[in-house]
Amino acid sequence: MFLKINKDHQRFRQIVKGKIRDDLRKFLTRGELIGKEGKHLISIPVRGIDLPHFRYGDNNDGGVGAGDAQVGDPVDSGDGDAGPGGTQPGSHIMEVEVTLDELADILGEELKLPRIKPKGQHTITAEKDRYSGIRTSGPESLRHFKRTFRAALRRQLIAGTYDPKNPIIVPVRSDRRYRSWKTVLKPQSNAVILYMMDVSGSMGDEQKELVRLEAFWIDAWLRRNYEGIESRYIVHDVRAAEVNRQTFFTIREDGGTKISSAFKLAKSVIDTHYNPAEWNVYMFHFSDGDNSSESDSRECCRLLKETMLPQINLFGYCQVASAYGSGNFINVIHEHLDSEENVITSRVNTKDDIYDSLKAFFTAGR
């Protein structure tokens, strides 16, 4: 009975995940998720699913109650003005609880994680399936013949049908045993993710919210797949500063913009702490594309091309639309770095664009 209940529960969870996957674009835009991590439960509204329940008998008969009312009488027969009734069928909405890790898994099934080229010491871990147990159900390709034979022999011994002089063992359906597996962590390469965000005056609250949402899901996905990955956070206007994760997602600033300040600080962090021969380095920069000057934008491209791109796995630039920014930095990147394979750019004008931006960054093989 327990195995059947567990199987039904797993099937129900798969249905729930399928519904979440259908509405994945919408869930990516939920700003209240920022700050949650790993095993925290998140309440998700899911349409079109009813909780499993028992049904008894024929519901055509009237219910049990008190008073003079007859079957079919309206519940409210007072003189109040309730207005006309609706004519459209209602939609079923159920609140289900999932963890951020589960949402990240669903995201990963859609977007894929870029392959990391192994470098240096093995301190980062990735998930790998390992066969570790026995179940009474499963695909025939995983049937454990020895365990199946032992189960059939035990059954015949208990039933008294085993004949030592004619030792024929015939397994039945209930005797079949199948190998099961669990997910284990396999050592992989060192990896560090550097997040850089423009917090200047041209970046309004709407633009910063778009950046935080995208950076949050990048961070959630990478943390889910790599145990112990290191993340560094840089914010900048005309000056750059390294901050912690919480500050990165909540800071409010203004002022001018000098993008090269963030790139120079990122280079200093890499040179000081992360030997490119030992580390896989990923950089993501978020901005509205406004910069103090064209010469500073060209300086950023020079820094990237000459000193950073040869050492890092990926540089991802995400530009958000702003009414106050020039939006020209992405054009400068395309002009000077268009031939660089480890440079990826995306535009995010609204929350609906976050899904496609994440997919661009995490295309398999990048």
Walk me through this protein's architecture.
- It is a single chain.
- The protein contains 10 helices and 10 strands.
- It has 366 residues and is an alpha/beta fold.
- It folds into 3 domains: 2-52 and 93-111, no CATH class; 137-176, no CATH class; 186-361, von Willebrand factor, type A domain (Rossmann fold, 3-Layer(aba) Sandwich), CATH 3.40.50.
- The chain has a 6-stranded mixed sheet, sandwiched between helices. Strands 1-2 form a two-stranded antiparallel ribbon. A two-stranded antiparallel sheet has the order 3-4.
Q: What distinguishing features does this structure have?
A:
366 residues; alpha/beta; Rossmann fold; 3 domains; 21% strand
Total beta strands: 10
What is the CATH architecture annotation of the largest domain? 3-Layer(aba) Sandwich
CATH superfamily of the largest domain: von Willebrand factor, type A domain
**SSE class:** alpha/beta
Radius of gyration: 29 Å
Major beta sheet summary:
6 strands, mixed
Helical amount: 25-40%
Assembly of the depicted chains:
single chain
What top-tier CATH class of the largest domain fits best?
Answer: Alpha Beta
> Which regions are unreliable across 5 or more consecutive residues at pLDDT < 50?
1-9, 45-51, 90-95
**Helix/strand order:** HHEEHEHEEHEEHHEHEHEH
Overall pLDDT confidence: 75
